[in-house]
Amino acid sequence: MGEGGGVAILAGNFFMYGGEISHNKAIECGGGVYLLSGNFYLEDGSMFNNKALYYGTAVYIRFGSSFYLNGGSISSNFEPSSTVYAFERANVFMNGGKIFNSSNALTIKDGVLIMTGGEIYDNTDTAIRLQNSEATISGGVIYRNSASMTAGVVVSNGSTLIMSGGIIYGSVESGVPEHLANQSNMNRTVLHSNHGAIVKYSDGTDILPHIDGFDIYTDYTVEGR
Questions:
Q1: Is the distance from CB of 121 to CB of 144 less than 8 angstroms?
Q2: How do residues 37-91 score in pLDDT, each as one tens digit?
Q3: In 3-state terms, what secondary structure has residue 56?
Q4: Can you tell me the distance from the alpha carbon of 17 to that of 164, in angstroms, rounded to the nearest whole number?
Q5: Is there a cis peptide before residue 177, judged by omega within 30 degrees of 0?
Q6: Residues forming beta bridges with residue 8, ordered by sequence position
Q7: Which SS3 state, helix, strand or coil, does residue 178 take?
Q8: Taking the alpha carbons of 170, 173, 179, 182 in that order, is the dihedral positive or negative?
Q9: CB of 72 closer than 8 Å to CB of 88
Q10: DSSP state of 29
Q11: How far is CA 221 from CA 56, 116, 160, in A?
């Protein structure tokens, strides 16, 4: 199919309480699920081995729609596109569940991410990318991801990240066991921001040191507060 290799939701709500969505392919977007207008609730079950030529190998959402990852797992969805792709005022609420063993786990472009729980780990590209978006992390764990530059979170193009909880594990040098660390081949960067991005704790304190608007946070574990 062009959009929505497994499930295409043009308007309405989709609740997934078990089973699997797997081995699907979209010629364009949303290898597993394509959500144009409405809500997708993943409560349990698994999504794996889905593909899309452009965006969202597992899930693609847009136009103010919302994806609620409350449980279950998303895995083994690989390049060329992001595993979960939210675009044009779309929202991702990650309250539980797991995204692992894929490429880039989450890309939010012109949207909102609220992460209160769950795990993002063992992915072969940046865990979370924010582009002109707003994100709040108050729980959950981001660990054991790998990338050529930034393995944890990239905050760019005027995005804002507020962190009041959760953990982004740093590199081996920070004292985190090697098997839990996010490994970036260049500088082992945990958090990276540019182009007017704002990265703060909920109390307003800067997480990143500001150096000419181009910030790199290296070799540390970031814990929300």
A1: yes
A2: 999 999 999 999 999 988 999 999 999 999 999 999 999 887 677 999 999 999 9
A3: coil
A4: 29
A5: no
A6: 34
A7: helix
A8: positive
A9: no
A10: B
A11: 29, 18, 19
